[in-house]
Amino acid sequence: MFCSKCGKEVKPGMKFCDGCGYPVKTTPEQQNEPIFTPAPAPVVPEENRPLGPWAYFGYGLLFSLPFVGFILLIVFSFAGRNVNRKNFARSYWCWLILLLAFALIFVVLVLTGVLRGTAQGVTQWIQSLRL
Ligand SMILES: [Zn+2]
Hints:
- The chain is built from five helices and no strands.
- α3 (about 70-80) packs across α4 (about 85-110).
- The chain has two domains: about 1-35, no CATH class; about 50-130.
- The protein has helices at about 30, 55-65, 70-80, 85-110, 120-130.
- It is mainly α.
- It binds zinc ion (ZN).
- Zinc ion binds next to loops.
């Protein structure tokens, strides 16, 4: 018997060729078998399926829509099946809270008069550049 890879003679009963290490195949069925069968890809359950970059971009865009986006944000934050989409939706609340905090600070600054005259000052500065 001879090795099917390197052609060296293989003694009967040997499982591997001592010339090249290739497994010895004795029957015709074994000749056609692949030596190594790749491990099957792990099955990721739907709730743990990762989101692609475009999904993150798309959901971010969706949540930015006025009113409809807010409704979808609530739905995906609590009712979604996919953990990754749920976490992304929940992280969006942090941006919403930051935005509201900055809006509140801006309103307080306007109401207390700290920003009074700012727009006028900027306009005058631009006009002074033109002269
Ligand atoms: Zn060999």
